[in-house]
């Protein structure tokens, strides 16, 4: 079976791309159609760890470095760029030569290499500084440009018991909406008159952003991770969906579906929210990507009845599927569903069109390989100052002593002893939390970042210049 490159997909190519590559699509009979498996592969996102095992890697749509999985330990940005370029060159040698997107989690800076990290979202939300967030987005974009696209977290936190609460900008939807200025920093500011809902990327110093997780993962009952958000649609729209409207108006390229459920229905399985609301009502023209193994979670136990999970997710509106390990089964099941008519070819056309639209907008067809000139931006002095500004503005003093007339801060310079209370004071893992070189928090680990400082070190430096002799006490 061969699936003809549909008129709608071709119109996308024609409208978005001008130059030699379009002529190739027009005149070369070998590129007049996409075989069914190539269409299906455009819906497939791999993880880097399995790339050496996958026979379809040269026709894959995207690769994601989960948990910061890089080329090797202590890899530099130039090493990352070389790795990404090697995958890109393989994709360009395929019959159609469609470049791939390379994705990483970079939720508080380029956290995959040694460099300057920014405050986590909960701290950035405390700054209320829209321009600061935009500048952080622009700095992050420069540092990770070799990687393709990155992730932005847009949760509205309603229950602090949730273990990932620090990934939210806060509990106020208005504050979270303010923080969506990160999109303009990452992707660039769309010009006046840019069509609403269409993805936008300003140039090679910017990256494709992914807003996640749609929708309501910060409002699950009892703060349970991957839990169920119980609410009316009006509440969901007013509280949790509001920030996505701002992202869409700024041309966000991709949106990731949530593991969580809404009133008992998994988001990966919700045609109402993904297609009727996000795509149709809100007019989102980028692509919707699943979370890693999101399809496996549609069945109980996880991973059972996989073909049904593929069917329900694709029909619901998922355009690109992150499949870490079951890529052969995914392609086999998707091909069967298309050939049997259970998944209409129009649904595949829609997904491929959206994915290609983002790839063209991102400039991948013109400039598929990394730009070595941007390496100088990694850990530059300007970004160091920006990181310090973010930390300074994110600090929140809840109470400055018992008596307003006798504030605790600033500290009395005549003091001889300083007590730092709390086991977090000397633990880099607690202070940075996750989304660094790996996904999970690592405890008191200076090995990966040997020149980093913890709160105790900062206290020593802060008082050493004017308080001698001094004693720093750590009470855990």
UniProtKB/TrEMBL annotation:
Occurrences of domain Glycoside hydrolase family 3 N-terminal (ranges): 78-358
Any one biological process term the GO annotation gives: glucan catabolic process
Entry GO MF terms: beta-glucosidase activity
Pfam family, one: Glyco_hydro_3
Keywords: Hydrolase
Listed InterPro entries: Cellulose_Degrad_GH3, GH, Glyco_hydro_3_C_sf, Glyco_hydro_3_N, Glyco_hydro_3_N_sf
Protein name stated in the entry: Beta-glucosidase BoGH3B
Annotated organism of origin: Sesamum calycinum
């Amino acid at each position: 079976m061969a699936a003809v490159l549909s008129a709608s997909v071709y119109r996308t190519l024609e409208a978005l791309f001008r130059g030699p590559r379009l002529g190739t699509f027009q005149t070369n009979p070998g590129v007049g159609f996409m075989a069914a498996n190539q269409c299906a592969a455009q819906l497939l996102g791999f993880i880097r760890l399995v790339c050496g095992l996958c026979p379809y890697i040269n026709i894959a749509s995207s690769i994601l470095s989960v948990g910061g999985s890089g080329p090797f330990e202590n890899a530099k940005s130039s090493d990352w760029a070389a790795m990404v370029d090697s995958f890109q060159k393989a994709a360009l040698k395929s019959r159609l030569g469609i470049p791939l997107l390379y994705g990483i989690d970079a939720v508080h800076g380029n956290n995959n290499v040694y460099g300057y990290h920014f405050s986590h979202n909960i701290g950035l939300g405390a700054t209320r500084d829209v321009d600061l967030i935009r500048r952080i987005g622009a700095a992050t974009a420069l540092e990770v440009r070799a990687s393709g696209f990155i992730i932005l977290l847009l949760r509205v936190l309603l229950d602090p018991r949730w273990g990932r609460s620090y990934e939210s900008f806060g509990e106020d939807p208005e504050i979270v909406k303010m923080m969506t200025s990160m999109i303009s920093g990452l992707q660039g500011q769309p010009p006046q008159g840019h069509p609403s809902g269409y993805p936008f990327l300003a140039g090679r110093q910017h990256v494709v952003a992914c807003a996640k997780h749609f929708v309501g993962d910060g409002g699950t009952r009892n703060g349970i991770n991957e839990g169920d958000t119980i609410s009316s649609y009006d509440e969901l729209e007013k509280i949790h969906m509001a920030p996505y409207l701002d992202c869409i108006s700024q041309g966000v390229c991709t949106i990731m579906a949530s593991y969580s459920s809404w009133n008992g229905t998994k988001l990966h399985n919700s045609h109402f929210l993904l297609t009727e609301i996000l795509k149709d009502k809100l007019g989102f023209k980028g692509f919707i990507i699943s979370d890693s193994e999101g399809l496996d979670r549609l069945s109980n136990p996880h991973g059972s009845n996989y073909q049904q999970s593929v069917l329900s997710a694709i029909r619901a509106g998922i355009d690109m599927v992150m499949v870490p390990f079951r890529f052969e089964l995914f392609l086999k099941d998707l091909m069967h569903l298309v050939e049997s008519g259970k998944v209409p070819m129009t649904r595949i056309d829609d997904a491929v069109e959206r994915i290609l639209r983002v790839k063209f907008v991102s400039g991948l067809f013109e400039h598929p390989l990394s730009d070595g000139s941007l390496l100088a931006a990694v850990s530059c002095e300007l970004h160091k100052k920006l990181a310090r500004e973010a930390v300074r503005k994110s600090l929140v003093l809840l109470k400055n002593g018992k008596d307003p007339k006798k504030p605790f801060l600033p500290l009395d310079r005549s003091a001889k002893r300083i007590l730092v209370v709390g086991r977090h004071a000397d633990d880099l893992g607690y202070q940075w939390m996750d989304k660094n070189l790996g996904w999970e928090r690592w405890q008191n680990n200076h090995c990966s970042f040997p020149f980093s400082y913890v709160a105790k070190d900062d206290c020593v430096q802060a008082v050493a210049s004017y308080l001698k002799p001094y004693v720093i006490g750590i009470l855990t």
